[in-house]
Design goal:
Number of domains: 3
Number of strands: 13
Shape: globular
Strand content: 5-15%
CATH class of the largest domain: Alpha Beta
Structural class: alpha/beta
Distance between the termini: 73 Å
Radius of gyration: 22 Å
CATH architecture of the largest domain: 3-Layer(aba) Sandwich
Length: 415
């Protein structure tokens, strides 16, 4: 059987070269189903494990037929930081942070876009489009610019962090603000892609997920092909947790890894339909009509990939947790001050969720845990500034400085 697109619900199959996003039979999502026999033959012979770590280190696992069309900004290869200070704080045996803010545009979205935009070129697309809370639009705009094709992005009006909007605009994308939330913008984009022939690059596009699954490959690669006990991710539209699980399943099916981590999804309290479904044992989510959270990247009330997310969590015997905005900001500060890693609020949700799960006894202190940080803190500097002490202004004298330092207990006996 050749690689194809396969419906996650009814199993209908479609060729990889067809521009299609959902199943024609049941309208559910599609995902790439690899030809495992052919894939096993390719990876056995080519010495791929010796290549430098990056998204395209794993090119044999990616459904691209023409390597000359690859659009890359050298994405992937993000560090897996061993967080000893934070592990000690949380009384955890082993804690790592996969810092996806180190990608070219500052978020994990670059993994999906390098593959998605490459596929757009293979399919002769002239204009790409997405709906976004910020990171997707910034990434798509950059990769479209690199590819030399047009880009249109839809954003929820007045609900996008300034850093992300600036990135999107400087790369030359056409930005359309839609009155309403992300879910409304996505509905518009789906219809616009059909009517105007725009190539859709939200995570409803299965090739986006293919790029994002490489983060799971990297995590295992960086740990010597010994997966951790648990991977914790922020969850918004749920494409990323779905992509991690798909990548892990492929590695396991090929015999490259021998165990599977527990997938754990964290959502903000004002936008938590997936976490609520897991906690209640429901088979389907109940969409949140007006999602609200300071973590704009996961401010999504009706996530497209909810079925895949529920499946990933349940198949892996993982769990889900809900974090308040206050808990998220507290975790953002904690990670920055214990490990020197500055992440945007949505990224800090993984740390906030971990803290709660440890307190509840659902994460064992002997577990090895990876928290995924999906975006850099400079994506949303305004929120970070509000969470910190105000800048102190003094007269230009050492006396004034000494008073301020003593008042802040920053002088010791040897100063």
């Amino acid at each position: 059987m050749s690689s194809c697109l396969k419906c996650i619900n009814c199993g209908s199959k479609y060729p990889l070269h067809e521009i299609i996003y959902t199943c024609r039979i049941c309208n559910d999502l599609l995902e790439v189903e690899p030809d495992f026999q052919e894939l096993a033959k390719r990876i056995e012979k080519n010495g791929w494990k010796r290549r430098p770590i990056s998204v395209w280190k794993y090119k044999e696992f990616l459904p691209i037929s023409d390597e000359s069309k690859i659009v890359t900004l050298n994405e992937g290869g993000t560090n897996l930081h061993k967080c000893n200070n934070l592990a000690k704080e949380l009384k955890l045996k082993g804690l790592y942070v996969k810092n996806e803010g180190e990608n070219p545009t500052g978020s994990f979205k670059d993994r999906g876009m390098t593959v998605g935009v490459t596929k757009a070129l293979e399919l002769n697309a002239k204009t790409v489009v997405c709906a976004s809370t910020g990171n997707t639009s910034a990434s798509l705009a950059a990769y479209a610019a690199k590819a030399g094709i047009r880009c249109v992005v839809f954003i929820p009006s007045r609900k996008i962090a300034l850093g992300k909007l600036a990135q999107t605009m400087i790369h030359g994308a056409k930005v359309v603000a839609v009155r309403g939330g992300f879910d409304v913008a996505l509905e518009m984009v789906v219809e616009a892609s059909k009517r105007f022939g725009l190539y859709l690059l939200n995570s409803i596009n299965p090739f986006r997920i293919e790029g994002q699954k490489t983060a799971a490959f990297e995590v295992c690669d960086q740990l010597g092909w010994r997966p951790p006990d648990r991977i914790i991710l922020p969850v918004g539209n749920a494409g990323n947790i779905s992509a991690y699980w798909k990548g892990l399943r492929e590695l396991h099916d090929l015999g490259i890894i021998g165990s599977m981590p527990k997938m754990t999804g964290i959502q903000a309290s004002g936008a938590s339909p997936i976490a609520a479904a897991i906690m209640k044992g429901d088979e389907a989510i109940k969409p949140v009509k007006k999602p609200e959270t300071i973590a704009t990247a996961i401010r999504i009330g009706n996530p497209v990939s909810w079925k895949r997310a529920l499946k990933a969590i349940r198949e892996s015997k993982g769990t889900a947790e809900i974090a308040t905005d206050r808990e998220i900001i507290s975790a953002q500060r904690l990670l920055a001050r214990k490990e020197g890693i500055f992440v945007e609020p949505a990224s800090a949700a993984s740390i906030a969720g971990l803290r709660k799960l440890i307190k509840k006894g659902e994460v064992d202190h002997n577990e090895s845990v990876i928290c995924v940080a999906t975006g850099h803190g400079l994506k949303d500097p305004e929120t970070a500034m509000k969470a910190c002490r105000k800048v102190v202004e003094i007269e230009p004298s050492l006396g004034a400085l000494e008073n301020e330092l003593r008042g802040s207990r920053l002088l010791n006996a040897y100063a």
